[in-house]
Design brief:
Blueprint: H1 2-11, E1 13-15, E2 19-21, H2 32-46, E3 53-57, H3 62-72, E4 76-79, E5 91-97, E6 104-110, E7 119-127, H4 131-143, E8 146-156, H5 161-167, E9 172-182, E10 185-188
Parallel strand pairs: 3-4, 3-7, 7-8, 8-9
Antiparallel strand pairs: 1-2, 5-6, 9-10
Helix pairs in contact: 2-3
Bound molecules: guanosine-5'-monophosphate.
Guanosine-5'-monophosphate is lined by residues 19-22, 27, 60, 99-100, 124-132, 161.
Length: 191
């Protein structure tokens, strides 16, 4: 998606060998017009699937997932990383190793928001090693729901997440695909 690639070129910051900081439009400050365009692009890609729910993980997945839910007019559910007084029973849970924090989190979704009647579209901000998406797929399996596919805002093709999903024949739509970081610059994959 050209609009997103241009924004990454303008505002993204490469950190070290494998991390892109996009906190001016996605991960801290959020550009709502850009989110709406991303949501529309995911809608265009998955509109023929019988989707009933959009699923993501807090917190950075929520903005693009909400925009997608608005395009589909469907509910958005986000997995929570912390249990609380109001979220402790009747949960689906999965362990997720965080690429950016280098810690393992338990993610949870209340059983009342996902069931065997659901067909789910997963949306997330980044695809790196695929751990966040794998955790969500695990939860979809626990609920007996069906996975329609995965929409990713920024995929890093040099990490293993995409291959894991391709090997399982899961439909993945990534709106920007980064092949490498070279001298602090982003190199996009040419499809
Ligand atoms: P994975 O689970 O695929 O290894 O990593 C995906 C998660 O890690 C995303 O939900 C995102 O929050 C975070 N992440 C992975 N790579 C990056 C990156 O290059 N930049 C930022 N800002 N977050 C990333």
């Amino acid at each position: 998606m050209k609009l997103l690639e241009t924004r990454i070129q303008q505002d993204g910051q490469v950190l070290g060998a494998d991390v892109l900081k996009v906190d001016s439009f996605l991960n801290h400050q959020i550009d709502p017009d850009l989110m709406a365009a991303l949501g529309q692009a995911f809608y265009d890609s998955f509109k023929d699937a019988p989707i009933t729910k959009i699923l993501t993980v807090e917190s950075s997945g929520i903005a693009p997932a909400l925009a997608t839910g608005m395009a589909f007019h469907l509910p958005v559910v986000f997995a929570r990383k912390h249990k609380s007084l109001t979220l402790k029973d009747n949960l689906y849970t999965a362990e997720v190793y965080s690429f950016t924090k280098k810690t393992t989190n338990q993610i949870s979704i209340s059983t009342k928001f996902l069931s065997a009647d659901d067909t789910v579209l997963i949306i997330d901000d980044f695809l790196a090693n695929g751990q966040a998406v794998e955790g969500l797929i695990d939860i979809i399996g626990q609920a007996g729901a069906t996975l329609a596919g995965v929409g990713i805002v920024i995929e890093k093709t040099f990490q293993k997440g995409r291959k894991l999903l391709d090997d399982r024949h899961i439909k993945v739509t990534s709106l920007a695909r980064i092949q490498a970081f070279e001298d602090g610059q982003v190199v996009f994959a040419q499809d």
